[in-house]
Write a structure and sequence with these properties.
129 residues; mainly alpha; 2 domains; 7 helices; elongated
Length: 129
């Protein structure tokens, strides 16, 4: 793959509502390619998209490449809602407090996968009526 193809792949992967300033983004991409591979840039873009705050609107691509690309180094992406890792995180949070345990049991008892329920039996005990 050529660098032009790599940039085209990056451009298509960037959030559609923020694809502005293509020439400036291409220049920033070429600078980043001197120190990062195309795969690393795409991975950091994915991590940045999944870890940013929900209210945060994406910036232009050149700003991401010039400023934010180094901020995501070492950050793990958030698990997708409903995935086993997401359920494990929710269970761990619920174990931290009695109130959370009651709320979790009430709202998630029937939605949680059986494999996760087996890992956290204390959260899913049935209460006597």
């Amino acid at each position: 793959m050529t660098t032009q193809d790599d940039f085209t792949t990056f451009w298509k992967a960037y959030p559609e509502g923020s694809r502005n300033g293509k020439p400036a983004a291409k220049n920033a991409y070429m600078k980043c390619r001197k120190r990062l591979s195309a795969m690393e840039i795409l991975q950091r873009l994915e991590v940045w998209e999944t870890t940013r705050q929900d209210w945060y609107t994406p910036c232009w691509p050149q700003k991401f490449l010039n400023q934010y690309i180094d901020d995501v180094e070492g950050i793990e992406p958030r698990p997708v809602e409903g995935s086993p890792e997401w359920w494990r995180n929710r269970c761990e949070e619920a174990l931290d407090s009695q109130f959370m345990r009651l709320q979790f049991n009430r709202h998630h008892r029937y939605n949680c996968p059986l494999t996760i329920r087996a890992e956290y039996p204390a959260l899913f005990k049935l209460r006597a009526v």
